[in-house]
Amino acid sequence: ELENLSDAPFSGDEENGGSEERKTEINGNWIPATSITEAKINAKAKRRLRKNSSRDSGRGDSVSENGETLKIGVVVPTSPKGKLLDRRSRSGKGRGLPKKGGAGGKGVWGTPGQVYDVEEVDIKDPNYDDDQENCIYETVVLPLDERAFEKTLTPIIQEYFEHGDTNEVSEMLKDLNLGEMKYSVPVLAVSLALEGKASHREMTSKLISDLCGTVVSKTDVEKSFDRLLKELPELVLDSPKAPQV
């Protein structure tokens, strides 16, 4: 009896049954062996088909599960990505173009070349202010500090030594907010002239004369020369003849 036992799911008589149809019991039901074999073959074919399609996905045309050939770059319409990037109308109408020529979205500027009318003020608006229409807006220029003063005026005075136009210097200084640094204009001009030529000193004398009364006052000029006399020991280091000049 031990010799007749084997690992096969069939007994010895069933294996030698010849042409008789074999049956296997699954979940208490007897199923013919031929149907099981066909199911295994179909499953194996599907697995092989999926494996081949995954290999060929980066080399050329791929094959879908249904055996249809798909070209690279074509997104399957049923995929979520295909629906996201699809610009066609969901209702099946339209040509997939942007709405209103690109001017129908939220926060857009409108179509190219569109001209907007002047917005009229609504008097009934709760935020309407009658004094707002009579407001005059002016550009506010901050006063220069000591560091910005020297950095801004030094090139102006040096250019004046080249062209010699006092009116141009006066117009440029009027555009600046000198504030309390007005008296420093003659100080800087004389300091630069001491390091230059005799012609530069003569031009500086003319510049101070023309600026007095327009950009700087007589009091500012007096204050500037008082400061020059106090800083004379430092000026001698750069210009030894500063006291005589």
Automatic annotation (TrEMBL):
A Pfam family this protein belongs to? MA3
Extract the ranges annotated as region (Disordered): 1-111
> Can you supply one Gene Ontology CC term for this chain's record?
cytosol
Compartmental location: Cytoplasm; Nucleus
- The signal peptide stretch is none
Q: Which PROSITE patterns match?
A: MI (PS51366)
Q: For bias kind Gly residues, which ranges apply?
A: 99-110
- Where is each MI domain found? 148-245
Taxonomy, superkingdom: Eukaryota
Q: Keyword set for this entry?
A: Cytoplasm, Nucleus, Repeat, RNA-binding
One Gene Ontology BP term is: negative regulation of DNA-templated transcription
Q: Which GO terms describe its molecular function?
A: RNA binding
Where is this chain compositionally biased, Basic residues type? Answer: 43-52
Task: Give the similarity note.
Answer: Belongs to the PDCD4 family.
Q: Which PANTHER family match?
A: PROGRAMMED CELL DEATH 4 (PTHR12626), PROGRAMMED CELL DEATH PROTEIN 4 (PTHR12626:SF3)
Name the chain's protein. Answer: Programmed cell death protein 4
